């Protein structure tokens, strides 16, 4: 049981993500955090301040009390997006609220690189406090592991140069840990290892002090090439390349599960890790993340998972394996029922928890008979690469966890948030968090109206109406929804880009109008200003698609004046205006991302390496655009100097093609634009770290200029 006591109003400016002050004055005390995979739930007790030190159970007081107590608690939570939580009403008598069921998981192995990579302790502390206040009780603690791995490799006989050549740069460590990459954007400086180690001490201590179970990394079977030099008889095989990378930076070595070195390395690493950080007995390992196994033989797959698990129990007999289930839905042709069952049954039932990572769109539990008896956590993945873009699957979220609990012989033991990147689309994370407290689905329209009031600190009819529109449109993707934000705005231009939306574009334009109309009443709310930027940004993203269609149509019909008009508006007005809008809010600044990378360095040379990592991840994602624009962001500075320059070159070459009568060659454009993209990564331009301009004024200017035409074009339905 974790007890929480609320003491009056939250402090002004206490946003979780935007203000260094701590959030709501909320006190937490852990009464029990026993690891019990059979438990159906976890209890949180809300206590009045005068009863803070009482540990006796409050008892049941009826559902109406619980409902009001829950709303009181939620109203006090700090809002992501730089908001001011409202003053809560008087507290009801103490009540007992239960999580449904046992675990509330948070994080994705990729979040470590897309969002957390440059964080200092102050930012980590705010995140952990938000996690505790949101009821999170199970989370990854992955920092500092490279220093432990370095010790292990040195003890085995590898030299420092072999180790340095293996680790990637900081922004790509998530995929080094998964066995997907090695070497790219490295090496890791010694100072990085030490700083991450000390951060891990504090992160683990803070999480545990607030009743959370920490998940430490374990050995998945991948080894550096240096292991083969030291142990030439070791049985290791190279896997294939990953995601458009060749073997220069990919094709990792995987130990045979029956080779003795598998247990030697795995157990040695985990013993060192436990010695350093202690343990809550839960460990994460993913052997085949987006990589095909060497054999589809069920016996082989079972041996692999058994070897991973035995390397854990060799260091900790109580070990529980937490594994991402992404591989099963990512490569369904390989992972047929026999292969899935074999991998899962290589571990004793109940000693593994599978994260059904993308359950809101592609749940795995229904076609694997609830993971063939292994416990699983129903997760919302939602975000890929930390992309910006309004998106959600609210109907699926509101239905999915409850269906999973009712599934025949369900082994579901929790719900989870597993985004690749955070600091976007707060509403879906608030919804998913609240569903963890619920025994049945919510009335979504009523919920989002209350959300708007809670988020802005006051009821406002226009804001509530705006959120109802957003809830039914961009936040209500149905069916199989995989949103990587493939808007033409953030993609390398071509004549064959898809502009289809899953929602009616006019709903976003109307929500924009409604939010703007609430400016006089809500303009002092930091979360309102964040949301106004985000909704305006989405409207402009839609406008970019409209102008792209005009550009393409004009080129294909050889209408040069129309091409010049549409291209000129896009390149010289719309994109610069969007850049100005984004530059008016600190959470949409490229400079903030780049300076946080440089701030992690201890020398100019390190700062240059880290900045290169930060720029490359947002853009080329690899040396040659291997995963081009996967981690795209809409940030002030990036829109103008990266996306804008690409679009300018594209329009110029189309105009040149019409003028000369020669065909447009996409390959020639790709070669030319690659130089632009690569040049952005290595230029030295510094970007503002503080906002410039007034969000309301800039949004209003854009609205007056573009709204009438946008609504006219969108009345026919989805773009």
From TrEMBL:
Swiss-Prot/TrEMBL catalytic activity: Hydrolysis of terminal non-reducing N-acetyl-D-glucosamine residues in N-acetyl-alpha-D-glucosaminides
Family to which this protein belongs: Belongs to the glycosyl hydrolase 89 family.
Annotated Alpha-N-acetylglucosaminidase C-terminal domain residues: 447-705
Any GO MF annotation of the entry: iron ion sequestering activity
PANTHER family linked to this entry: ALPHA-N-ACETYLGLUCOSAMINIDASE
EC category: hydrolase
One Pfam family, short name: NAGLU
Organism superkingdom: Eukaryota
Gene3D superfamilies recorded: Glycosidases, N-acetyl-b-d-glucoasminidase
Region span, Disordered: 1-40
UniProt keywords, alphabetically: Glycoprotein, Glycosidase, Hydrolase, Signal
Enzyme Commission designation: 3.2.1.50
Cellular component, GO annotation: extracellular exosome; lysosomal lumen; membrane
Alpha-N-acetylglucosaminidase tim-barrel domain residues: 104-438
Protein name: Alpha-N-acetylglucosaminidase
Coiled-coil ranges from the UniProt annotation: none
Any GO BP: endothelium development
């Amino acid at each position: 049981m974790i007890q929480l006591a609320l003491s009056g109003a939250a402090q002004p400016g206490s946003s979780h993500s935007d203000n260094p002050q701590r959030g709501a004055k909320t006190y937490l005390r852990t009464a029990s955090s026993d690891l019990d995979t059979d438990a159906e739930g976890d209890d949180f007790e809300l206590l009045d301040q005068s009863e803070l030190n009482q540990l006796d159970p409050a008892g049941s007081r009826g559902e109406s009390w619980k409902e009001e107590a829950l709303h009181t608690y939620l109203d006090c939570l700090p809002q992501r997006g730089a908001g001011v939580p409202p003053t809560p009403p008087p507290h009801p008598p103490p009540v007992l609220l239960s999580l449904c069921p046992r675990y509330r998981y948070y994080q994705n192995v990729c979040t470590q690189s897309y969002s957390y990579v440059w964080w200092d302790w102050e930012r980590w502390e705010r995140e952990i406090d938000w996690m505790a206040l949101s009821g999170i009780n199970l989370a990854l603690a992955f920092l500092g592991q490279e220093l432990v791995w370095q010790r292990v490799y040195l003890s085995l006989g590898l030299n420092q140069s072999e180790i340095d050549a293996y680790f990637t740069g900081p922004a790509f460590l998530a995929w080094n840990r998964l066995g997907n990459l090695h070497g790219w954007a490295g090496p890791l400086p010694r100072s990085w290892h030490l700083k991450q180690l000390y951060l891990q001490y504090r992160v683990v201590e803070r999480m545990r002090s607030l009743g959370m179970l920490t998940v430490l990394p374990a050995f998945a079977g991948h080894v550096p090439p240096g292991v083969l030099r030291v142990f030439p008889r070791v049985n290791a095989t190279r896997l294939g390349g990953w995601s458009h990378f060749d073997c220069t930076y990919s094709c990792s070595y995987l130990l045979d599960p029956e080779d003795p070195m598998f247990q030697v390395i795995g157990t040695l690493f985990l013993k060192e890790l436990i010695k350093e950080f202690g343990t809550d007995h839960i460990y994460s390992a993913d052997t085949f993340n987006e990589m095909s196994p060497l054999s589809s033989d069920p016996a082989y797959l079972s041996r692999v998972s058994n070897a991973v698990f035995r390397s854990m129990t060799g260091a900790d007999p109580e070990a529980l394996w937490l594994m991402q289930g992404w591989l099963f839905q990512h490569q369904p042709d390989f992972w047929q029922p026999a292969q899935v069952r074999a991998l899962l049954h290589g571990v004793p039932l109940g000693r593994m928890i599978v994260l059904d990572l993308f359950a809101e769109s592609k749940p795995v539990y229904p076609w694997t008979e609830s993971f063939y008896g292994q416990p699983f956590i129903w997760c919302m993945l939602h975000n890929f690469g930390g992309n910006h873009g309004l998106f959600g699957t609210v109907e699926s979220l509101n239905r999915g966890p409850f269906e999973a609990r009712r599934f025949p012989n369900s082994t579901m033991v929790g719900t989870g948030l597993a985004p690749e990147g955070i600091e976007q689309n707060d509403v879906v994370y608030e919804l998913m968090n609240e569903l963890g407290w619920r025994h049945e689905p919510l009335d979504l329209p009523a919920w989002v109206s209350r959300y708007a009031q809670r988020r802005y600190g006051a009821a406002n009819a226009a804001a509530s109406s705006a959120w109802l529109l957003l809830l039914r449109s961009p936040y209500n993707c149905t069916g199989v929804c995989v949103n990587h934000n493939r808007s033409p705005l953030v993609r390398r231009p071509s004549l064959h880009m898809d502009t289809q939306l899953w929602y009616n574009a006019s709903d976003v334009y109307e929500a924009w109008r409604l939010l703007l109309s609430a400016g006089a009443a809500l303009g002092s709310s930091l979360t309102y200003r964040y949301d106004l930027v985000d909704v305006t940004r989405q409207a402009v993203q839609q406008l970019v698609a409209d102008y792209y269609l005009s550009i393409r149509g004009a080129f294909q019909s050889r209408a040069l004046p129309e091409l010049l008009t549409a291209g000129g508006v896009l390149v010289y007005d719309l994109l610069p205006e969007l850049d100005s809008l984004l530059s008016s809010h600190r959470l949409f600044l490229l400079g903030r991302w780049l300076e946080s990378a440089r701030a992690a360095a201890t020398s100019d040379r390190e700062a240059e390496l880290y900045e290169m990592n930060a720029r490359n991840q947002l853009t080329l994602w690899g040396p040659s655009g291997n995963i081009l624009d996967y981690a795209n962001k809409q940030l002030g500075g990036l829109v103008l100097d990266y996306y804008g320059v690409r679009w300018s070159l594209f329009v110029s070459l189309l105009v040149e093609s019409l003028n000369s009568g020669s065909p447009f060659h996409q390959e020639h454009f790709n070669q030319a634009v690659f130089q632009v993209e690569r040049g952005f990564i290595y230029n030295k331009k510094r970007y503002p770290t503080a906002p410039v301009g007034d969000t309301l004024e800039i949004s209003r200017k854009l609205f007056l200029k573009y709204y009438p035409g946008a609504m006219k074009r969108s009345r026919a339905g989805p773009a």
